[in-house]
Design brief:
The protein is α+β, with helices and mostly antiparallel strands. The protein has two domains: about 110 residues, Pseudouridine synthase I, catalytic domain, N-terminal subdomain (Alpha-Beta Plaits, 2-Layer Sandwich), CATH 3.30.70; about 110 residues, Alpha-Beta Plaits. It is built from four helices and 13 strands. Strands 3, 4, 5, 6, 7, 10, 11, 12 and 13 form a nine-stranded mixed sheet that branches.
Amino acid sequence: MEPRSGPDGKDTGDSTAPSPSQHPAVVEPPRQRWRLVLARASDGPQLAGRELADAWEAALDASGLPIHRPAGRPRGRVAFAAPLPLGVTAERELADVALSRRVPLWRVREALTSHLPVGWVLVDLFDVWPGAPPLAGRVVAADYRIELMDVPDREHLERLERAVRTLLESNELIRTRQKGDGLVEYDLRRLLVEIALDLAATPAIRVRTRIHPELGTGRPEEVLAELGERMGGPLEIRGIVRERLVLSDDAR
């Protein structure tokens, strides 16, 4: 392309070259990424979706930490590994927070502990590589503890043991769940990894359910409902606790 000349004959350069204002803004990548291990009480505020995100963004803003703000997002964010069902107690939830500059562990712990949303507790935190894959894509399962109201009597315990055994021995467990305005069928067995009785100090049913991008997410209340149907009546429980999330690279 030939250079253009101005009225005085001087070369003005290529007229198609973008002006400085046309260049996209350069967004600096995060300098640090902290993995938070969090607990949530079942009696805390029951927030989910946008309300929960707003509560966490407000907490991050108040912490004074240099939160990294992605392009198009004026506020910081916390990236949870997986949604936590309402009413479920959590012992070791995982979430990532990115910072625009490096901050020592003690300072991050101090800042977050003072400003967590109501009902949440910081259990631990780790400095992880900023370029690591997002947490949400690495979660493959979740471990739940369904706490029973009382230690079952012998007859009740035998029925419960049979129900647990038949669930594990089944090739499929077809159930229906709400999706949008209708109901859809799904195979609960494909989402159930493990189930076992634990008759320790607090009697419980321990369940590991799969979290899969195509199959969906196994829900502990659906496992509980299937057990109740096989026993001829619902089980009385104290509550459901999500003990931890299982990542793809976790050891057994």
